[in-house]
Amino acid sequence: MVGSDFMVICIGIFCEFRYFMVVVSDFMASAGPKKIVGVFYKAHEYAEMNPNFVGCVENALGIRKWLESQGHEYIVTDDKEGPDCELEKHIPDAHVIITTPFHPGYITAERIKKAKNLQLLLTAGIGSDHVDLPAAAAAGLTVAEVTGSNVVSVAEDELMRILILVRNFLPGYKQVVNGDWNVAGIAYRAYDLEGKTVGTVGCGRIGRLLLQRLKPFGCNLLYHDRIKMDPELESQTGASFEEDLDKMLSKCDIVVVNTPLTEKTKGLFDKERIAKLKKGVLIVNNARGAIMDTQAVVDGCNSGHIGGYSGDVWYPQPAPKDHPWRYMPNQAMTPHISGTTIDAQLRYAAGVKDMLENYFKGEDFPPQHYIVKKGELASQYR
């Protein structure tokens, strides 16, 4: 018994010592000059047109002088694809990598293996699915994003897209550009939003903001999520909870996708699920392109089963010139722009700076910013 008790005490001391060493190593890891790599889109001539246009390569989140004044190295590039790209060259000795959802630098398991100094992956914006999160967790990396930085921007964009599809706006605009005038060619499939049933798949911050903005339009509002809203918030939005996704979708005139991309939601809207939707349904997706089966969406638009599809997310990104969504009928697609308004850029640039300051001091981030912390994924990615 004495020997057994001694072993228990030793194990306890070892665990305490190991915990102490982890805490110390985390703190020490944040000390000294660091190499920070940012992956953003190039703005070219537009970079100088607005001093607040900070989310591009040229303006580098507005933090270059601050970082370099403290002795850190700051490499910024838009070159992120292939074995010879700039991102690949800098991965082995980078301590921090900052990417955006709008021009994602895909941080794969293979790249994580090469990144011997890597400690922190930051998303300037919301959505960290461009990172292999299980691999990051297994490697002991921290992954964080600027939660809430562009939720208003995306929700407003979704409302705009709903109206564009419902009113059949784009063909009318194209008529004007082409010098035509054919009211009937627009009016035969233009409707009011009032009285329509709108359902959001996922009801986090963006979904709730969208529902609040839709309430004055007099729609029938539904939502499906893994967590039911509290009664007071439900009352504020005027939305009803639907536990069964397919049951909700079968009721919707308009479906808005607001769920994160995870292994569970990848390909969520496949051929079989789209077939269960109302004929002529309108779909808005500003979440992630890979939530949709690409060809199933094309087939649905071609057949008319999908009456209109609009979004700004693709897979992969940037979308190649031959991506079929560019050429399907009744689409209102754009590049990934909804969350990178100037107002959103200022918010997510400030959030990145704040988190880097915490990182250099060895301090924690606000809890809501963590996607991977101490080997554990945030609940929305599990």
Automatic annotation (TrEMBL):
Q: What does this protein do?
A: Catalyzes the NAD(+)-dependent oxidation of formate to carbon dioxide. Involved in the cell stress response.
Assembly, per entry = Homodimer.
**Which residues make up the binding site for substrate?**
126, 150
Q: Residues that bind NAD(+), according to the entry? A: 205-206, 225, 260-264, 286, 312, 336-339
Q: Which Gene3D superfamilies match?
A: NAD(P)-binding Rossmann-like Domain
Q: Which PANTHER family match?
A: FORMATE DEHYDROGENASE 1 (PTHR42938:SF9)
Q: Which InterPro entries match?
A: D-isomer_2_OHA_DH_cat_dom, D-isomer_DH_CS, D-isomer_DH_CS1, D-isomer_DH_NAD-bd, FDH_NAD-dep, NAD(P)-bd_dom_sf
Q: Which organism is it from?
A: Artemisia annua
- Reactions that this protein is recorded to catalyse: formate + NAD(+) = CO2 + NADH
Q: Which CDD domains is this protein grouped with?
A: FDH (cd05302)
Note the PROSITE patterns from the entry.
D_2_HYDROXYACID_DH_1, D_2_HYDROXYACID_DH_2, D_2_HYDROXYACID_DH_3
EC code(s) of this entry: 1.17.1.9
Top-rank taxon of the source lineage equals Eukaryota
Q: Which residues form the D-isomer specific 2-hydroxyacid dehydrogenase catalytic domain?
A: 67-364
Residues annotated as site: Important for catalytic activity: 288, 336
Domain D-isomer specific 2-hydroxyacid dehydrogenase NAD-binding stretches: 160-338
Where is this protein localized, as stated in its record?
Mitochondrion
A Gene Ontology cellular component where this protein is annotated is: mitochondrion
Query: Which UniProt keywords are present, listed alphabetically?
Result: Mitochondrion, NAD, Oxidoreductase
Q: What is the protein named?
A: Formate dehydrogenase, mitochondrial
Q: Which GO terms describe its biological process?
A: formate catabolic process
What family does this chain come from, according to its entry?
Belongs to the D-isomer specific 2-hydroxyacid dehydrogenase family. FDH subfamily.
According to the UniProt entry, its GO molecular function terms are:
formate dehydrogenase (NAD+) activity; NAD binding; oxidoreductase activity, acting on the CH-OH group of donors, NAD or NADP as acceptor
